[in-house]
Amino acid sequence: MRKPETIETLYLDFDGFFASVMQQAMPHLRGKPVGVIPFDTASAQYTTVIACSKEAKARGVQNVMRVPEARAICPDIVLVMQRPDLFRWAHGALLNEISCEIPIETVKSIDELCCTLTKSDIGDPQGLARRLKSFIAENIGPHITCSIGYAANRLLAKMACKMDKPNGVTIWRPEDMPRPLQDLPLTEVPGIGGRMEKRLAAAGVNQMEGLLDLQPKQARALWGNVTGERLWYALHGYALKAEPTGRGMYGHGRVLPPEWRNLDKAYDCARLLLIKAARRMRRDRFYTNRLWVWLDLRKGAWVQCRDIPSAHDDKAILSALDILWEKARDDLARHKIEIVRVGVTLSDLTPANARKRDLFHADDEDRQKWERLTADMDGLNRKFGKRVLSLGPLTPPPGGYAGGKIAYTRIPSAEDFW
């Protein structure tokens, strides 16, 4: 395994991305403590600040903080509803600016990316950082800033990137390691959360020094898989390539506004989310064999699944949803419930080129008809660049952007907003 003798990776993380994009697009928000929320301000007291500006963070507000708590800490916080379409546009524009200066190796999320350094970049990392920040400020806007980390590999560069936020540049050269790591808490290492921290503590590893002193096989045993061993090598400066991952599911979830927290409205939301998940699945040429529906209740949860033999058309998938929803009504309608969040997941995927045909379940004449009809609807929607046809009515919940959520590992496409 190769151990680089110089920095090889740049990791870039945009500072307070959602809030800073809103400030750049809306001048009246600039310089103010801003909190981005999922719903409009009429429902603000029931929701959470999903992202906040550097001004809000300086006042003690944190991401994923309940609005009443944020207002108690920062009474003049300005709450604005999320704009996933704007965030997606800004993401594309920023990638374009960066790629004009250095090729982007991997886009990690809506606000994080990494690049492999060229020889000239290795010789002047500060100059590269200045150019990138200058291009962003001049061509996108000065209110969107980024922090940059340099190191021998991606994991160390990501950790370095966090050291001088916002708008900082940190360089961890191999000859300086592991000194910059030694005073960091274990939870600063990507992949070590609260549960893993407790497991390490039970094994006598309470500080970074103890983690670094482990042997690779010991780390593997503590994690219970190869992840621990790979993490050990990455922390010790070895060059590791990310392992390829396969698609396991397609799904969407949505927190419901207060007036939608009943079975009828939750069904409308689930139906819309499911159609959008199925459309994404078809774009990637997969079939599903199982549908999951989950409801987060104010007290408890309801989760059920149903097998769907090798399906990808809207009719088969929505029919499975209707059957599961009748089960939900039977189980929940007798009780006074409040559905806080609804979600749907299409799992047990089969690539289209590996699909096994089944005369009785998946490929009778009726199923083939609905598959052709679904393909025609998808084609017309793509042609006009919006939703012009759907199987039955679609009723989006207040706040919009259902199915256009920006998850950590997924950046919505334009079609997700139809």
Automatic annotation (TrEMBL):
Residues 9-193 form the UmuC domain. Its EC number is 2.7.7.7. It comes from the Bacteria. Signal peptide: none annotated. It catalyses: DNA(n) + a 2'-deoxyribonucleoside 5'-triphosphate = DNA(n+1) + diphosphate. One of its GO terms (cellular component) is cytosol. GO terms for molecular function: damaged DNA binding; DNA-directed DNA polymerase activity. It is an enzyme of class 2 (transferase). Belongs to the DNA polymerase type-Y family. Monomer. Poorly processive, error-prone DNA polymerase involved in untargeted mutagenesis. Copies undamaged DNA at stalled replication forks, which arise in vivo from mismatched or misaligned primer ends. These misaligned primers can be extended by PolIV. Exhibits no 3'-5' exonuclease (proofreading) activity. May be involved in translesional synthesis, in conjunction with the beta clamp from PolIII. This is DNA-directed DNA polymerase. It comes from Parvularcula bermudensis (strain ATCC BAA-594 / HTCC2503 / KCTC 12087).
